[in-house]
Amino acid sequence: METLMIKVDKENPSAEALKPAVEMIQKGGLVAFPTETVYGLGGDAENPEASKKIYAAKGRPSDNPLIVHIWDFSQLEEIVSEVPEAARKLADAFWPGPLTMILPKNDRIPLETTGGLNTVAIRMPSHPVARLFLKESNVKIAAPSANTSGRPSPTLAEHVAEDLSGKIDCIIDGGAVDIGLESTIVDLSEDVPTILRPGYINKEMLEKVVGPVRIDPGILDANANKNIRPKAPGMRYKHYAPKGDLAIVEGKPEDVIREINRRVEEDQGKGLKVGVIATKEDRELYHCDHILTIGTRTDEYSIAHNLYAILREFDELGTQKMYTESFETPKIGNAIMNRLLKAAGHEVIRAPHED
After folding, report:
1. What share of the chain has pLDDT > 90, as a percent?
2. pLDDT at 341
3. 13-24: pLDDT as tens digits
4. Interval 273-299: pLDDT, tens
5. DSSP-based three-state secondary structure for 264
6. Pure H helices in 211-326
7. How far apart are CA 143 and CA 153, in angstroms?
8. Nearest to 264 by CA among 254, 277, 279, 251
9. What is the pLDDT of residue 231?
10. Is the Cβ–Cβ distance between 244 and 314 less than 8 Å?
11. Burial class (CB in 10 A: 0-12, 13-18, 19+), 151
12. Number of C-alpha atoms within 13 angstroms, CB side, residue 341?
């Protein structure tokens, strides 16, 4: 299969330019497209065969639900069995935007799309290209991240091509995404809204709109949810992972730097190619051949934006072992650490304290 690449202007996308992609999605094909979070791999959400193609192209477990993307609230009403008041309030506050809501589905969305669950995950992206693509196709689009399952999510069209060229029909290149981490997922199918995946929209922001919100305890727990069928994408799978081994080092800053440098020296002595993920503030304090700057602690959104691209860059460098600081930042620290823990297979090292 030859994968068509379509370049579009992010700020002023053209319906004419998107026409080939629209025709492909309407015929049951697969089209990767940019959103404000990451690139998504889209197929017709109401077509079970299209959803099967998504799982096959990604190598994704078929019980891992797909998120249905819509461009108008009326489309949500078409595919759920009920719309709770909380969903309307959250949509008014955060849609279009990086929020996914889980609701009881009706029969229009097949079980192939929902991973066999009787709930459906829905979001309305804000990215201009995604919105025009959804509107022009007039198709509800099921779209997980457009990468090989388990790999770092794509934030550039080139990342999509690296993983999926020859496996899908089309890639819409809208340039770099804005946020760089997947949407917040909140489950509204039970009594108390529950965050199943942290993202740009945090708990405090949600609670201002709907009152008390719970956080699923498995989000940052290495041992939780291993025997539970996931309602949210990737809840029980290693995800976002580079090809080499990644470890997170926690502790006081000076202890973390000392411990990472010690381990780097030890690994390099074994002939391994080693890398360090560092903030701008600490970069000069590390001693390693490959040090990549993820951002600055004064701008936690820069850390989120650069995370996946850095993991992919280490792959290009052939890095075998990587170390990173932890990021307990106030607004989206949970989201950043959730992705890092999955990328590291929950390998966390506590740096010993030295007086």
Report:
1. 90
2. 92
3. 999 999 999 999
4. 999 999 999 999 999 989 999 999 999
5. helix
6. 253-269, 300-317
7. 12
8. 277
9. 59
10. yes
11. buried
12. 23
